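Next up, sample data:
>
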Amino acid sequence: MNNKTEKSKTALIPPHGGYRNLKSYQTAEIVYDATVVFCNRFIDKRSRTHDQMVQAARSGVQNIAEGSMASATSKKTELKLTGVARASLEELLLDYKAFLRQKGLRIWGKDSPEALAVRQKRVSDVSDLPDMSDPEVAANTMICLINQASYLLGRQLQRLEQQFLKEGGFTERLYKARTQARKR
């Protein structure tokens, strides 16, 4: 074990805030950016739906970041905010499905050739997305990306839960550190 690893295991406030490296964050950020483009193009800017969709997408991104930063002193908060991020993306998913349904447009099946093509494509920003000028393609592409982000957040929640069960939380570290300091 190197010195940095040893220090992070014994530090009262462990390393935190690495959310930019999380695939869930990166995917949610693309969903947010693309949702702004989608809403500006296809949803009346004065409508509540426009604002709600953009805010749900933003909430997905912001809650991942906030949870990651809070993880140093509260695993409970990290778990909660990661769950909120996932719930916000679920709300957004329903809005995209409602858009397609209300416009009489086709909702791609999970295993449709189009959905499979989106899932196989490496998307690193909005410019990597397929034709976002077609509302059916754009909304279905967003559904695929939201499902990917939600899946990643689900796995992240499972990992956080296992990590909490194994290592405990900040309060336990405080107690342990204080007990050890008294023994010295």
